[in-house]
Design brief:
Elements (H helix, E strand, L loop, with lengths): L4 E8 L7 E8 L2 E7 L2 E8 L4 H11 L9 E6 L13 E6 L28 H4 L14 E2 H4 L2 H7 L2 H6 L3 E7 L5 E7 L2 H14 L8 E5 L5 H9 L4 E4 L5 H10 L2 E7 L2 E6 L4 E2 L2 H5 L1
Parallel strand pairs: 3-6, 7-14, 10-11, 11-12
Antiparallel strand pairs: 1-2, 3-4, 5-6, 8-9, 8-10, 12-13
Helix pairs in contact: 1-6, 6-7, 7-8
Length: about 280
């Protein structure tokens, strides 16, 4: 069952030429209701696929779990419609015994859209979440030349983007070797990040020391916060960061890289982690 893409008849208009009708491929966007121990926590708009990773990453971002051992089980809820048909749009997670259930204050009162992972927070204070990990203490060093190879590796992993042009992507890279550990796509950039963090927590890899989170979008505050919650010391983006993301990165001791394109980049915080070899320095 392919629910990641959908086909639709379109008309392409080019000035000076007659309209052309054809079939196009679009990225699917559907709601996902996340439940914990049977209680609804939030609804997000996402691209179906890797839903359990998405929910696990969301729980890390919210400070509910910090280890794969906390994520006891997950299932799609049957009877999600009045007809009793399973739409695969409702996931219920069972936390391990002894893991506290989410505080009711975390429950989102309205929809989390594909463009905003923080929408629905009850207050400004709730936006900032305390992490169990300290990225400031991470002694990782990443070679600048190696870092410039990450965007192309991520781009090559974007299978659905190649077909639709409508998805964000995120990947985790080993900052020392440049190995890409995992990559995920989604209509929401925050969902793509939750998916890779969720994969990592299920592999019991948290905190993600020495890891670079590479995103195909701009670096917003919400992405920097998600990186911090997973113990990721370096966030790199192909586009610009927001002012709050830069301030936050500096505050928590995270390295923030923007405009990572070709052979150049801009360092907004934590510059000491990005190093060049002696020959490059001499030039």
């Amino acid at each position: 069952m392919n629910r990641i893409t959908a086909r639709r008849k379109i008309t392409r208009v080019t000035i000076g030429s007659p309209p052309v009708s054809r079939e196009d491929v679009l990225a699917v966007e559907e709601p996902l209701e996340m439940r914990v121990n049977g209680r609804s926590l939030a609804v997000t708009m996402r691209t179906p696929g890797d839903d359990f990773d998405l929910v696990a990453g969301f729980l890390v971002s919210e400070g509910i779990i910090t280890s794969g051992e906390h994520f006891f089980a997950a299932r799609y809820c049957a009877g999600a419609t009045v007809d009793g048909v399973n739409t695969y749009n409702v996931v219920d997670v069972t936390l391990a015994p002894g893991v506290p259930a989410p505080d009711p204050s975390l429950e989102r009162s309205f929809l989390t859209t594909s463009s905003c992972g923080l929408c629905g927070k009850a207050s400004i204070d709730a936006v900032r979440t305390k992490s169990a990990f300290s990225v400031a203490e991470d002694a990782a060093r990443v070679d600048a030349e190696l870092l410039t190879t990450f965007p192309e590796k991520l781009r090559e992993a974007q299978d659905v983007f190649e077909k639709t042009g409508g998805l964000h992507a995120a990947a985790l890279f080993d900052g020392a070797t440049g190995e890409m550990l995992v990559a995920r796509e989604d209509v929401g950039r925050h969902n793509a990040v939750d998916k890779v963090i969720g994969w990592a927590v299920k592999q019991n890899l948290l905190p993600l020391s020495g890891i670079v989170l590479m995103v195909s979008s701009r670096a917003s505050f919400e992405l920097a916060q998600k990186a911090m919650m997973a113990g990721i010391p370096v966030l790199a983006a192909v586009s610009a960061p927001s002012s709050l993301a830069a301030e936050f990165a500096e505050e928590v001791g995270m390295t923030l890289v923007g405009f990572l394109r070709g052979q150049s980049m801009v360092l907004y915080a934590g510059q000491e982690r990005i190093v060049q070899n002696e020959s490059a320095d001499a030039n």
